[in-house]
Design goal:
This protein has 389 residues and is of the alpha/beta class. The chain folds into 2 domains: 230 residues, Flavodoxin domain (Rossmann fold), CATH 3.40.50; 119 residues, Cyclophilin, CATH 2.40.100. Helices cover 23% and strands 20% of the residues. It contains 9 helices and 15 strands. The strands form 2 sheets. The protein has a 9-stranded antiparallel β-sheet. β3, α5 and β4 form a beta-alpha-beta unit. α3 packs across α7. The termini are far apart.
């Protein structure tokens, strides 16, 4: 009789643990990558799956008072063979860009303007669901602050910061706390947006609030359930419309300084990879960027350089006359290196250089940059848009 009784007790314990799934104190991990139903969150909630990038337009232009910063698994892992990932499988969709938070970030930008910034760690997470989940749990238990590879150099210029991330183990991912603690948030307005599984917002907003100064204004957050992310653009629009948010003059998040000082172009180009994924770049308004646009279409082959950038050589030189005489590239910057005549995509921040010409900034697909050299041929062509002068 001992064995049947022991089995009965074990089954009872398992059932009780499962029933606790909705209670954040039970460690049932509703927002941990629990199973295939919450897979997206793994990195996105330790299971919320998402991407960079929309984002990953990680690039501050310094021309807006609105920043849209976000953290996604897709921008923080490396998938060796993207073609092997079944994008229809709930458990794997989150590892491919754009991630859930990146999608939301791009829709927010459409409504309010502003600059996109993908929060990227120095040490990527595993693309294996269980391994990523384990690391996220360890970081939470240790209250770790993973080092970041991407940074915002002009945080003082932003008055409003939309901050997005997945629910990982009932709270925000530890790299988001690294990001928060890196800057002075005094007097800013923070607007959280969260992707999640069945755990909802859990303690994400409470923990974020505790990490920010008391004089920070935190507006009503939005939580989007992972399976509903792709259909949530209208919900994002309604949420933003209901916020007590004062946008700067000029409309759509642009300040007068942005309109008169930089003349940023709305012309975009598309880098198409052989797995049908793509990187969208918004070009700057300078002669070098215009010269690149006139060369399209192009077929390029990228290689890694110095574990910082992906480079590809052009068959023609790009003129430097009339372009900025220095570039301070960050994650997602597309530049032209004058001495060698090559394009370079930065997937890590780099020092200012007078040998680089800034051509543009990634708006979506930044999470694909690290694997750009694994694509045999990258097609570059014009995307929608024209010069905004």
């Amino acid at each position: 009789m001992k064995r049947p009784v022991a089995l009965l007790v074990l089954l009872t314990l398992l059932c009780s643990l499962t029933a606790c799934g909705g209670n954040p104190t039970s460690q049932s991990i509703s927002d941990v990558p629990e199973s295939s139903q919450n897979a997206e969150e793994i990195p996105d909630t330790p299971l919320n799956t998402d991407p960079p990038t929309v984002s990953q337009s990680s690039g501050e232009t310094g021309n807006s008072n609105i920043l849209i910063a976000y953290f996604t698994w897709a921008d923080n892992t490396v998938v060796e063979d993207p073609s092997s990932v079944d994008v229809d499988a709930t458990t794997s969709a989150s590892v491919l860009a754009p991630g859930n938070a990146a999608k939301l970030a791009s829709w927010i930008q459409q409504e309010v303007g502003g600059d996109l910034h993908s929060i990227v760690v120095e040490e990527p997470y595993s693309s294996d669901y269980d391994e990523c989940l384990d690391r996220a749990a360890d970081e939470k238990a240790e209250n770790a602050r993973p080092a970041l590879a991407s940074h915002v150099d002009n945080m003082e210029d932003y008055d409003i910061v939309f901050l997005g991330f997945p629910n990982w183990w009932y709270t925000l991912p530890m790299p988001v706390l690294t990001f928060v603690e890196e800057y002075d948030w005094s007097g800013k307005t923070v607007v959280p947006f969260v992707t999640h599984g069945t755990g909802g917002l859990s303690s994400t907003i409470r923990d974020l609030t505790a990490a920010l100064p008391e004089d920070v204004t935190i507006l009503e957050p939005i939580g989007v359930y992972r399976p509903e992310v792709d259909a949530s653009q209208s919900a994002i629009q309604e949420w933003i419309a209901g916020l007590d948010l004062e946008l700067p003059q000029g409309g759509n998040g642009q300040t007068q300084k942005e309109e008169t000082n930089t003349m940023e172009s709305t012309r975009r180009i598309r880098f198409s990879l052989d797995d049908d994924s793509e990187i969208i770049v918004r070009l700057n308004d300078n002669p070098a960027a215009e010269a690149l646009y006139e060369m399209l279409p192009l077929e390029l082959s990228f290689e890694d350089f110095n574990s910082t950038e992906k480079i590809a050589y052009l068959t023609e030189e790009i003129p430097s006359d009339g372009s900025p005489d220095q570039c301070d590239p960050d994650v997602g910057s597309l530049c032209y290196y004058i001495p060698w005549g090559n394009l370079c995509f930065f997937y890590r921040d780099f020092r200012p250089s007078s040998s680089l010409i800034p051509l543009g900034q990634v708006e979506s697909g930044a999470g694909l940059l690290k694997g750009l050299d694994r694509t045999a041929a990258v097609m570059v062509e014009a995307a929608a848009g024209g010069w905004n002068r």
